[in-house]
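User: Hey, quick favor. My workstation is busy. Could you predict this chain's structure for me?
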Amino acid sequence: MSQIATLISEVKRYALVQPEEADGLVIHCSDPRFQAAFREFVTSDLGLQHPIPIVVPGGVHDLVSPARLKAARNLWEQVEFMVKKGHVHRIILINHEDCQWYAKWNTLVQTTVGQDISGHLLALAEKLAEKKLGVEVECYLAKLEGDAITFHRVDRD
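Assistant: No problem, here it is.
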């Protein structure tokens, strides 16, 4: 081991979380403006202490968009792997307003961003139910309110 690695490991040790301690899988966008709010919401408001994050541009977009079938296959494989190996029983889906990934793809396929952001959450929740993974799915929309972010649960009507 190099001298640098030895010094770093002597300074601080980090806890190793066992797979059975994972208390949820969280899928959300990688937009840096929202990361601190996502982390705080998931841990403080939803009570997840050991979430497994899947953080990709557009959050759930590629799992449900017909324009992204190849990306969807890869992401589905990751989701199913993490549910099984991480002993996950709860999945949190979060999309947010002003998502540039949605804006990019919706321009290409000429759909309306606002409808897709919430609609994709519910569509993915339905797909997860169809896969019978034995998980509880919760959907949330992060909204911009001035220089703050608020979270709103999205449910079927």
